[in-house]
Amino acid sequence: MISFYPGPSRVDENIPEYVREAYEQGILSLNHRSKAFMQICERTIGLLKSKLHIPEDYTVFFTSSATECWEIIAQSLIEVNSYHFYNGAFGKKWFDYTRKLKYQAIGYQFDPEQELKIGEMDLSSETGVICITQNETSNGTQVNLSRIVKLRKKYPDHLIAVDATSSMAGMHLDFSQADVWYSSVQKCFGLPAGLAVMICSPTAIKHSRKLQENRHYNSFNFIVENIEKFQTPYTPNVLGIYLLMRVMENRKPIGKVEKKLRKRLRNYEAIFSESDQFSLLICNKNVRSETVIVLEGNPENIEALKKKAEKEGITLGNGYGELKSSTFRIANFPSLKKEEVKALHKFLKKNILQ
Ligand SMILES: *Cc1c(COP(=O)(O)O)cnc(C)c1O
To answer: Domains of the chain by range and CATH?
Structure first.
């Protein structure tokens, strides 16, 4: 079966070999205070920085999921105010989770077909955390980097936090334009779930030191103190970190990865532009995601297509949230092999173009 689900997604083809290697080398039983673990941790962070172009003075550490990152930001970085700009289910969830911990969180919903309008924003306070979902996995939209640059310019004194769960490692992100970025690894990294990466600016670290929040096992300050020694507060997902290291060793620089995925996206766009059963949910190319493709159609046609695909060994992604039955999704992630993408193209051409 080839999975085109946008997370958990098709894992890197070398994962079985890497797992075996980890077992044979005793990595699965490694103590997380040992020198050997610290070296793996250091090397993984170094590879992430070089392959994804993360600024040298940024801090990279590990958590268990993007959801945990939502909670860490809420408990440790949001003092009072946070501003959540969202147009889909994941951005909304982030807002909802934050609201449970910090009741003054404000949500601003915007139209999925529209770009985020920085000019019209009016934040109620001089400080606080602005929360943006860069790639909205539920509806296949993205906030362009140029918008994040504008946001940074307009609000130099706010922290900017970005959920890049379904785009990090799939497209080039200019990390210098925001303070906190995070992603779990079961999307563009092509790894099994249970690990996430958080990337923070020196300003974010300074801010958290000032707040001195230290009441949780995953308090931001506590994690940062540990990662300075390439350690973690609790026994981490050592296998996940090892697999991330091995996968990043073999990944091309992000510019090349992005180019490959863009080309694939153009091919999908061409195919669906000729179908009268299914069309891209998002018409505005400026806000269309490059890594998650969402197709709209009649629920019966979608159900039939998914069933047919399943018979041919292809898993298409279900719609998400309120779009569950009216859409289906295709992951445009780097671990999908050329032949696999070709197989899907062939299947689509045969089954949707009549
Ligand atoms: C998948 C996803 C999440 C949730 O990730 P978990 O690892 O399950 O916590 C959050 N945000 C976005 C944009 C996602 O795509």
So the answer is: 2-8+253-352 (3.90.1150.10), 15-250 (3.40.640.10)
